[in-house]
Model the fold of this input.
Amino acid sequence: MDSQQKKDRPKKIVVKNLSIDFDCEQGKIHAVKNVSFEILKGSITALVGESGSGKSVTSMSLMGLLDSNGKVTGGNVFWEKNDLLKMKPKKRMALNGNLFGMIFQDPMTSLDPLFSIETQMVEGIRYHSRCSKKEAYEKAVKNLFDMGFDEPEKLMKKRPFELSGGMCQRVMIAMMIALEPQFLIADEPTTALDVTVQKQILKKIYRICHEKNVGVLFITHDLGVVGEIADKVYIMQKGEIVDKGNAFDIFDRPNHSYTKKLIASIIN
Ligand SMILES: Nc1ncnc2c1ncn2[C@@H]1O[C@H](COP(=O)(O)OP(=O)(O)OP(=O)(O)O)[C@@H](O)[C@H]1O
Done:
C-alpha cells in the first residue's frame, strides 16, 4: 500500500468479537457476546435494541469506562494500529478526550447545576486542550452558535436549570464538539425530548457528522429515530448482534424476526 492509499484509507474504529461479562451476586452475566461492528469517520452507525440488550455496556467499553465488576473477556477494539483494549489505562484515558466525545440521554446529569454554562464549557475545553481562557471562551461561543443559539454570550451566563431539556442537550453537544473528538458516542440522546426537539437534535448530529467528518455511534432502542440519519444499522438483542445492514436494507429486507418486531413497533 503506497502512502497516498494509506492516507485515503477510511479512518474507523473496528470492534471485533467483543465479549463482556459482569460478576454479580447471582453469578456471571454475559452482557455482550461476540459483537463486531465498525464506526467510520463522517458516517453514522446505529446500535439499536431493547433495554438491557448491551448497547451502553458496549459503548462504555470502547472508552474504557466499564463498571468495576465488568470485564472484557474477548475481542479487540482497533483504532489505526492500536487495540484500545490492550493499551495501558493511562495512555488509553489520555487518548479518550481527543478520540471520543460522549453525550447521554439526560444532559442534566452531565451538567453541574451550580455553575454557569460559561464556567462549565470554558473549564471543560481547557481541561482537554491546552488553550487560554479567551480561546476556550471563543471556541464555546462558536460551537454554541453552530448548535443554533443566536446569542451564545447571553446563554453562557445562565445555569442549566434555566434552560429546557433540548437546550441543555444542545449545550452538551456543543461542549463535546468544541473538544474536536474524532468520534461521538450518542447514547439515547433524544429519548428524553419531545418529538420536535428530537428532530432538531438529530439534524444537528447529522450535520456535525458530515460537515466535521466525525464518526458517530448512535445508540437507541427506537429504530424509527435512526431510520433517516444512520448509514449503517446494527440490531442488538440479548448481548448479540442479530441483524445488520444499511438503513434502507434493514427496513426493506429485515433478516431477523426481532428486526421485524422493531419495525412493526414503529408502524403500529
Ligand atoms: N455494573 C453492572 N453489573 C451487572 N450487570 C450489569 C452492569 N451494567 C450493565 N449490566 C447488565 O448488562 C446488560 C446490558 O446492559 P446495557 O446497559 O448495556 O443495556 P442497554 O441495551 O444499553 O439498555 P438501556 O438502554 O436500558 O441502558 C444488562 O443485563 C444489564 O443489567
The radius of gyration is 19 Å. The mean pLDDT is 89. Residues 195-212 form the longest helix (18 residues).
